[in-house]
Amino acid sequence: MSASPSIHASAVLIGARAVLIHGPSGSGKSRLALALLHAAAQGVIPFARLVADDRAHLEVAHGRVLVRPAQALAGLIEVRGLGIRRVPHELVAQLGVQVVLGLERAERMPAQSQTTAILAGIALPRLAVAAGVDPLPVVLAWLQTPDGSG
After folding, report:
1. How far is the C-alpha of 88 from the C-alpha of 31, rounded, in Å?
2. How many domains does the chain have?
3. Cβ–Cβ under 8 Å, residues 9 and 21
4. For residues 77 and 54, what is the distance between their CA atoms, to the nearest angstrom?
5. How many angstroms separate the CA atoms of 29 and 43, rounded?
6. Which carries the bigger pLDDT value, residue 146 or residue 125?
7. To 5 degrees, how large is the angle CA 22–CA 26–CA 127?
8. At 106, is the pLDDT very low, low, confident or very high (cuts 50, 70, 90)?
9. What is the pTM assigned to this prediction?
10. Rounded to the nearest 10 degrees, what angle do helices 135-143 and 29-41 cross at?
11. Are strands 122-130 and 93-103 parallel, antiparallel or unpaired?
């Protein structure tokens, strides 16, 4: 398959599906990715592995959206205050949810239309997190409740 243009996003494989993390520069994409990796290391979630940090490629295959790291950044993640670090990573994963960080406003009780994203023409669940709100509890709640993939 030909490489798709990269997008400014991070992705973490959690169990069988990946979380795609979008947001403006400085919104905490890498921080959330690291927090998910740490949650798995602490046994809060069963498994997590980095797919991409900062740049990701999306493609559609057999009705699924796949995410891959940008080749030059594969296995690298920014740790604010430490710089770039190498971590174990996956080469490809199926997307399960999109998390959008740094929004000016996110509804406490979002309407159904606000909880779906269309990525590469495929509908996926969408979690919107307002700026200043810790996204980790939101993602963990989604994963650990019947509406999530966990």
Report:
1. 16
2. 1
3. yes
4. 8
5. 21
6. 125
7. 30
8. confident
9. 0.90
10. 50
11. parallel
**Domain-located, residue 149:** no
Distance CA 41, CA 62 (A): 32
> What's the CA gap between 41 and 21, in Å, rounded?
20
Joined tokens for residue 82: 């430490």
Domain containing 61: what range?
6-143
User: Does residue 137 lie in a domain region?
Assistant: yes
Q: Are strands 6-14 and 17-22 parallel, antiparallel or unpaired?
A: antiparallel
- DSSP secondary structure letters along 49-99: EEEESSEEEEEEETTEEEEEE-GGGTTEEEETTTEEEE--B-S-EEEEEEE
Q: Is residue 148 part of a domain?
A: no
Cα–Cα separations (whole angstroms), residue 15 to 45, 50, 61, 125:
8, 12, 19, 16
Q: Tell me how long the chain is.
A: 150
> Is 102 inside any structural domain?
yes
Tell me the two tokens of residue 53.
């940090």
Q: Per-residue pLDDT for 59 more than 90?
A: yes
Residue with tokens 């599906």: 17
CA 125 – CA 19 distance, rounded (Å): 10
User: Residue 12 maps to which CATH number?
Assistant: 3.40.50.300
